[in-house]
Amino acid sequence: MANIVLVGAQWGDEGKGRITDLLSSKVDMVVRFQGGDNAGHTVILNGQEFKLHLVPSGILYPDVECIIGNGVVINPEALLSEIKSLEEKGITTENLKISSNCHLIMPYHIALDGASESRLGSSKIGTTKKGIGPVYSDKASREGIRVCDLLDPDLFWRKLNDVLEIKNVILSKVYNVKTFEAKEIFEKYTGYAAVIKKYVVESTFLINKALDEDKNILFEGAQGTLLDIDHGTYPFVTSSSTIAGGVFSGAGIGPGRINEVIGITKSYCTRVGSGVFPTEETSVIGDLIRRRGNEYGTTTGRARRCGWFDSVIIRYSAMINNLNSLALTKLDVLSGIEKLKICVSYKVDDNIYKNITPNCYVLEKSQPQYIDIDGWETDITNITEFNELPKNAREYINMIEELIKIPVSIISVGPDRNQIIVKDDSLKKRFF
Fold first, then answer.
1. pLDDT, tens digit, for every residue of 207-256?
2. Active-site residue, 379 included
3. Alpha-carbon span 338 to 198, nearest angstrom
4. Does residue 174 sit in the same domain as residue 264?
5. Which domain-ending residue is among 147, 171, 198?
6. Known catalytic membership, residue 113
């Protein structure tokens, strides 16, 4: 076994929850290390759909310990709603743990997020308006309120009043929107505290103790590599470190603790929100992929932008995450398309680039250069072995491996837990 990091290799929504769920049965602990309820993972179990935003996907296995690490930002209302929904569906949350160092999303963060997006107009980032950016800003400027602060009513009251003094001025004078009363927030959030406190732990010690005991841990990222605050298509990114390196600060572990990194990518490409997307298809093909793949955001319900597989961005993801392999999701969505395309390089002005940093102002001028691959007509949703796939489907995957220079280890051919092909023998031996 090994300690594995799962990261999105595109712009998010790659199916990380599905792969986390797939591998969780053979690990002792699943740790979420960044992001907030702006992320959404959909997992289908026995025909029942579970939409997870903050709770790690391993929660569907009652013997797996699930940790929300210190790098995650938490909206208590959203978290408690998610816990309630899981329990109503018969899923226990007794093994859920929350880091005491998680920063809290407050009502003024959500208000500031929405007001900022409105003010940007046509230049808006396309955020989920969940307050993610403002809470990470407060974290960086040392104005944040953490879970441990919430559990100390006197400290919480003092910090809340101090920060509201500043936030209300910004809300009223800069954005001309409603301000907040400290008492109202205090009463609501101390009510949350009464429920949440049973889940709160010093997660860094808990995780490192598990590592010292040679337990197997799966570290689950949210969003995707191209949304990383440092390495993504800035400024159209999220506010946390979404790459594999983010696990070290977001969970509180050392670099030597990780044995394997698996990148999750769709068999095509999608993006939600604003920002550059070189292989986007605004034609009937884009609409077809969106419809077949049910490409609507788990968190917001927004229609995702769809396009062809982009090997340029995946090569970049493979490099900065040090990927060992790829998990390729939604291959079945491409069945029946006569001609498939794979982007192999970008043309910018008169130059061809097979590798490029994701500078969105450069990528806006890029023209994707494609190779054509013959499609397949066969229904592949019941296939469980790679060699049973249609010849053209195998060639499509082989071409991706050749372009990225790392192997494809997992292929999903349908939404259910069992609609999966494990191509890597080592992974199959360890998890299946």
1. 999 999 999 999 999 999 999 999 999 999 999 999 999 999 999 999 99
2. no
3. 55
4. no
5. 198
6. no
